[in-house]
Amino acid sequence: ESKNLSVDHRLTEVCELLEKNIPYYDWVGFYFKNGDKNELKLRAFAGEPTDHDIIPFGKGICGQVAVTNKNFVVPDVKAQDNYIACSIYVKAEIVVPLFVNGENIGQIDIDSHTADPFSKEDELFLEFVNGEIAKILG
Ligand code: SME
Questions:
Q1: What does pTM read for this prediction?
Q2: Which of 21, 75, 88, 98 could join 130 via S-S bond, C-beta 3.0 to 4.6 A?
Q3: SS3 label, residue 54
């Protein structure tokens, strides 16, 4: 309802802010666990639309993070065998889980057209962003 609409709007604004301002962030999205289903659902994004708005737990980089609860930094997507390609231009990806009250409820996912662009600073920054998002989801 209206509270969710405004949260979705704010999530989209965060995606747009990151995608516009960080040159090597080419696609930015938030996936959330989808109710009782063992899958993630895309809730907000900036960049090219993707066909992968539903991702089963365990599948791809995102689906793996849904079960490991750990950051996943992929310097070269071609070196991954459990990977879901969204665009032929993507060279690297980072996924950082989003915790509310200690529970992994979703994640921020970023694709890059630059090879090996992500550092520890990106991880720390995205953990901070997710912490702020956790406050508005509360
Ligand atoms: N590459 C992801 C799928 C989501 S798209 O990047 C938007 C994965 O392997 O889980």
A1: 0.96
A2: 98
A3: strand
Instruction: Write down all domains in the chain, each with its CATH number in brackets.
Output: 2-137 (3.30.450.40)
Which of 42, 65, 86 maximizes ligand 1 atoms within 8 Å of its Cβ, making it the mutation to test the pocket?
86
The pLDDT mean for the chain works out to 96
Q: Which amino acid is at 47?
A: G
The tally of CA atoms less than 13 A away on the side-chain side of residue 10 is: 14
DSSP state of 3: H
pLDDT tens, 81-116? 999 999 999 999 999 999 999 999 999 999 999 999
Q: What is the per-residue pLDDT for 38?
A: 97
Structural contact between residues 77 and 91, judged by C-beta atoms closer than 8 angstroms: yes
Q: State the amino acid at position 71 in one-letter form.
A: N
Site to substitute for ligand 1 among 62, 73, 81, 83, most atoms within 8 A of C-beta: 62
